[in-house]
Amino acid sequence: MVRASVIGCGNMGSALVRGLSESGTHAVTACDVDPAALETVEDCAETTTDPSVAAEADVVVVAIKPGLVVDVVDDLDLSPDQILVSFAAGVPTSVLEPHTDATLVRAMPNLAAETQNMAAAVTGETIPEEVTTLLGAVGEFVEVEESQMDIATAVNGSGPAFVFYLIGAMRDAGVDAGLEPDDAEVLAAQTFKGAAETVLRSERSIEELIDAVCSPKGTTIEGMEVLWDSTADEAVADAVGAAEQRSAELAADIDDD
Ligand SMILES: NC(=O)C1=CN([C@@H]2O[C@H](COP(=O)(O)OP(=O)(O)OC[C@H]3O[C@@H](n4cnc5c(N)ncnc54)[C@H](O)[C@@H]3O)[C@@H](O)[C@H]2O)C=CC1
Ligand SMILES: O=C(O)[C@@H]1CCC=N1
């Protein structure tokens, strides 16, 4: 079994550890300097506060804040037969490459790794099979150019927060009109989940799917007219654009250091 380690078991790293544990595809070592972070994953992985133990894995994933990742990678001292996967937002491959002898892959994951529903973007000249296997074990991934990583970071890395917001808005509308909060949350969240699954599985375009929900003179078309007349799409585009810009700024900050 491939040995994988996850260094940094905060929000993102712990989600990956839990998802990988559920998949059963890897022997996982979870590493964090904070024992409290390790407690959250102690049921699903070997845990250690010692990075040199995590550095023995075949695939080493670093889920460390962007400003710390270079120093952490430097200290790992990995060998050319190992693979290093960086999840750090806004940290270009060119910045990390001089600090490791391992095959380096930059990826942008998201929190849904935990439920094996992650959407990830991955970039690199050739993506080793060990990495596609790992990412595939916890969701779907697409290969992109490194120049597309800032926008991918916004769409799929930050994206879950934007979708949580939209689910909350749908829930609140239901509650305001008389649904119980718990019921409204289930209905809103399951509707997003079902709609997303439909988009992924269907041959039909999003426009065709909208059309399929809109019965002639029915309820949905009334709501869609409101959305089409609104600037909701612009607000979503602005949110994605702001996150993309911040990803590019992180890269510039790291270049300045
Ligand atoms: N939170 C998210 O949804 C996503 C985060 N990312 C990226 O993942 C990385 C981590 O983000 P979060 O999990 O949100 O941060 P976080 O702050 O929740 O977790 C970072 C963890 O790293 C640990 N850590 C710090 N220094 C360490 C060291 N030297 N050795 C071992 N562990 C160390 C901290 O104790 C903490 O538990 C960032 O680079 C971020 O850009 C990427 C996609 C999604
Ligand atoms: O907000 C952030 O910077 C990280 C990267 C993508 C999601 N969370």
From TrEMBL:
Tell me the Gene Ontology biological-process terms attached to this UniProt entry. Answer: L-proline biosynthetic process
Keyword set, alphabetical order: Amino-acid biosynthesis, Cytoplasm, NADP, Oxidoreductase, Proline biosynthesis
Q: Does the keyword NADP apply?
A: yes
Q: Which GO terms describe its molecular function?
A: pyrroline-5-carboxylate reductase activity
Residues reported to bind NADP(+): 7-12, 63-66
Similarity remark: Belongs to the pyrroline-5-carboxylate reductase family.
Listed name of the protein: Pyrroline-5-carboxylate reductase
The gene that this protein is the product of is proC
